[in-house]
Design a protein that fits this description.
The chain is an alpha/beta fold. Helices cover 42% and strands 18% of the residues. The chain has 9 helices and 14 strands. It is globular and about 60 Å long.
Length: 314
């Protein structure tokens, strides 16, 4: 039997994830659920039509939002992308990413959806995209009753990709030559753990000194990329869509790849973006990083920010 995946919330991001799942051919069955039944139904038809020109076949169906969700009982994974709303960035000089602005709407849906997922008998792995990602992942774990190991968020994985892009462009390298992480909240308190960043195996801190590069400026460039996308389109979809697909593949194929995903940090008692090894069981390991004293302080401050936001919706 092949893999069965569900996507809950098929707006800009969810539909991109669904498209990636079908074109990559990683699931034999895909179930779509959205508050707007007409949207889910239309996406199911559209995704099926394109398969006339694909080498793989995925059975795509939709479930009306108010219907029984028992079909989720044997799903291997659910991607939760419901609740994100279009954020209008009115000030072009404001390079922040106000993901907290999406929290109340996302939390409302989690409180509706979580108990229904629990009732369905679903026992697979849940990947949360919706913002605020860390808070939503923790709230979904609470509302669905799933073990923390089986619920994670995309965390700072996309932010890390944006950092790799900024570093690679600055140095004239391939993005695949860059390693290292952005960690913490998927939001304002995230930061680059420069102690972890290397380019072709060389420490980025040393390269920056040699070439007179400003690491703070590089970090701003990475954030600016997300702002440019949001300001230009009003939403993001391709970067986060591929991020979610890659994490999902690690679940379905038990690849045990490590991402800066949002998982439960037992010591800090919160979900937060940190190196997380992902496999068929969900969170397999949390390798940790050898952070500097300053980075440890930033990480703890970021955890406090997440806790503050979680307290507003729990």
């Amino acid at each position: 039997m092949g893999n069965k995946v569900a996507v809950i919330g098929v707006g800009h991001v969810g539909s991109t994830v669904a498209t990636n799942i079908v074109t990559a051919g990683i699931a034999s069955e895909l179930v779509l659920i959205d508050e707007k039944d007409k949207v889910a139904r239309a996406e199911a038809y559209d995704l099926t039509d394109q398969q006339a020109y694909l080498a793989t076949t995925t059975k795509v169906s939709f479930v009306p939002y108010e219907d029984d969700w028992s079909t989720l009982a044997d799903a291997d994974a659910i991607v939760f992308s419901a609740g994100n709303i279009k954020i209008v960035l009115g000030n072009p000089n404001d390079h922040s990413n106000n993901r907290v602005g999406e929290l109340s709407n996302s939390a409302r849906i989690v409180k509706e959806v979580g108990p229904r997922i629990k009732q369905s008998g679903f026992h697979g792995v849940m990947i949360c995209i919706s913002n605020s990602c860390d808070v939503i992942a923790q709230l979904m774990q609470q509302e669905s009753g799933l073990p923390a190991q089986q619920v994670l968020g995309t965390g700072t994985s996309l932010d890390t990709a944006r950092l790799h892009r900024a570093v690679a462009q600055t140095l004239g390298k391939s993005m695949t030559d860059v390693a290292g992480y952005v960690i913490g909240e998927h939001g304002e308190t995230q930061f680059t753990a420069w102690s972890s960043v290397t380019v072709n195996g060389r420490a980025m801190t040393k390269i920056a000194k040699e070439q007179g590069l400003d690491l703070d400026d590089l970090q701003k460039q990475a954030r600016l990329g997300g702002h440019v996308v949001g300001l230009g389109k009003g939403y993001t979809c391709y970067g986060i869509g591929m991020t979610a697909l890659t994490i999902l593949k690690s679940v379905l194929n038990d690849e045990q790849r490590t991402f800066p995903a949002s998982s439960l940090n037992q010591q800090l008692d919160t979900y937060i973006g940190q190196p997380t090894t992902v496999g068929a069981a969900g969170v397999v390991d949390q390798p940790g990083l050898d952070l500097t004293a300053e980075e440890k302080e930033l990480f703890e401050k970021s955890a406090q920010a997440i806790k503050h936001n979680f307290a507003s919706v729990k």
